[in-house]
Amino acid sequence: MGLRTGDQYVEGIKTRNKAKIYVLGKRVHDVTTNLFLKPSVLSFKATFDAAFEEDTRDLARVYSPFVGEEVNRWNSIHMGPQDLVAKVKLLRKLSHKTGTCFQRCVGWDALNTLYIVTKKMAEKEGKGIYYKNFIKYLEHVQRRDLALAGAMTDVKGVRPLKPSEQPNPDAYVRVVEERDDGIVVRGAKANITGIAVVDEVIVMPTRAMTEKDEAYAISFAIPLDTEGVTVVVGRQLNDARRLEEGEIDGLPYMFNHEGLLILDDVFVPWDRVFMYREWKWAGVLVEVFSAYHRQGYAGCKSGLGDVIIGAAYNLAKQIGVADKPHVREKLTEMVFLNETMYSAGLAASWEGKKLVEGDGGWWVNPMYANVTKHLVTRFPYEVSRLAHDIAGGLLGTAPSEFDLKNEEVGKLIAKYLQGVPEFTAEDRLRMLRLLENTSISVAYLVESVHGAGSPQAQRISMERIYDFDAVEKIAKSLARMSQRKADPRVEPHRPTDSEKA
Ligand code: SF4
Is 298 in the pocket of ligand 1 (CB under 6 A)? Predict the structure, then answer.
């Protein structure tokens, strides 16, 4: 099949019989009709519909040599820098359709990460079983056009302690039993994007490991609806508006969700295991994955930036200040910040690196991917601040849509909250709510700081990659303190562990 419609995706995730999904303390069986999760389903669904819609069709589908047909790009393996660029562009475009995180990219990055890491384990250590398992799984995913989550972040217990040193031995996901037909795993993964509304989840280690941690150095995939799986969906700002069944205050009516994934003695057959007690490879896997996801933020966050800039511009028009110099100045600053994030992601893509032999295996440029994400930890806050400045205080004090719809007070709101005559008070409330819910959202702010690694993680990576000794030699030679040998590198960057492995 290779390509499912959005409706087919929704039909496919309807029933959870084995996995226990909890929302606000209640068990949910049908995640597609649950009011709290519905916006998340709609956002995920947009990634399937994108493969059939005129303006995204070419970006959202791509030929896969693994199954010999077109597949949804979210399940594809990058065959060159052009695919990495297409990823960033697709993500920007999808933000325009959803106004939020569409949740499918973590699973996509997990596929590309495992393609590289399992192939490396085969090439360098002759452990071909993981690559064989992975390719079989990839074909399964591509043929059925499955919705995947990627689960990396463990709950981590006491942060400075390694997995094997934790007072709670399940603070990191680990293998607790080995059988002839597979393994039994236990533990929990936190902050898992889109987890309640996917077909399957790929589990990966979250940090570099030592030999003592080998029980934790595992990667595998399971259908979400598996015995022993529990998901507890997290809360977000303004989430109760989803339950009100209005059509203004919760705009845009697509949202992401994150959840706690608990694996309570879950059985995984051997052919779904992609890394088993391979502690030496855990660090490489994390590095490859995190750089992929850091690059992706260039697309989705600049796309959300477009939505926020558009909303601020419209609100400025609604009160007649769009042509004032100080407003133009702020809008231009927002554009600059937004396009800077995007440009860094494109650089990370065009400067991508091939990490394995044969087809595929294209990785992003790790320095520029980290720079991208580091910009994203800061710039969205400034874009939001400027948008709030332009929008005015009503952004935080506007009455609800139910006041507007009230026969008595609604007329007064319509009269007093109107700005220029071309727009109604309802227009103003709609745009204010869109701006409020996008610019103060988890998807645009908290996720921008912590998703794909918190700011310090990028600083550590950038410091490791940048070759301070090389630039010192450049400076010393120009200062006539010493001569330096010719260095063919343009960028003073050192190879990462993933490139060396
Ligand atoms: Fe995709 Fe962005 Fe959401 Fe990550 S944060 S899943 S890259 S939309």
Answer: no
- pLDDT digits 0-9 by tens, 474-499: 999 999 999 999 999 999 999 999 99
Distance CA 385, CA 391 (A): 10
Q: At 119, is the secondary structure helix, strand, or coil?
A: helix
Residue 421 half-sphere exposure, CB side, CA atoms within 13 Å? 0
For 183, the enclosing helix (H) or strand (E) is strand 182-193
Q: How many other C-beta atoms can be found within 10 angstroms of the C-beta atom of residue 341? A: 25
Q: What is the pLDDT of residues 260-303, one digit of tens each?
A: 999 999 999 999 999 999 999 999 999 999 999 999 999 999 99
For tokens 């103060």, the residue is 440
Please give the DSSP secondary-structure letter assigned to residue 365.
-
Distance CA 455, CA 449 (A): 6
Strands 61-64 and 69-72: antiparallel
The H-or-E segment that residue 242 falls in is: none
pTM above 0.85, yes or no: yes
Q: Is 377 known to be catalytic?
A: no
Please list, in sequence order, all residues whose beta carbon lies within 8 angstroms of the beta carbon of residue 57, skipping any fewer than 6 positions away.
50, 51
Residue 138 tokens read as: 């990839």
Does the C-beta of 105 come closer than 6 Å to ligand 1?
A: yes
Please identify which residue in the block is written with the tokens 């940048």: 466
Counting ligand 1 atoms within 8 A of each CB, the residue from 43, 153, 236, 293 with the most, and so the one to mutate, is 293
Contact 453, 480 (CB under 8 A): no
The answer to whether residue 101 is catalytic is: yes
Length of the chain (residues): 501
Q: Which of 227, 204, 228 is nearest to 276 (CA)?
A: 204
CA-closest residue to ligand 1 atom 6 = 103
Supply the residue whose CA is at minimum distance from atom 4 of ligand 1: 105
Nearest to 91 by CA among 39, 147, 50: 50
Residue 221 phi/psi, 5° resolution?
-130, 145
Provide the terminal-to-terminal Cα distance of the chain, rounded to the nearest Å.
Answer: 36
Q: List the residue whose alpha carbon is closest to atom 5 of ligand 1.
A: 101
How far is the C-alpha of 214 from the C-alpha of 217, rounded, in Å?
5
Q: Which candidate in 32, 78, 98, 105 is catalytic?
A: 105
User: 45: exposed, middle or buried (C-beta count within 10 Å: 0-12, 13-18, 19+)?
Assistant: buried
Q: Tell me the HSE value of 490 on the side-chain side, using a 13 A CA sphere.
A: 1
Distance 105 CA to ligand 1 centre (A): 5
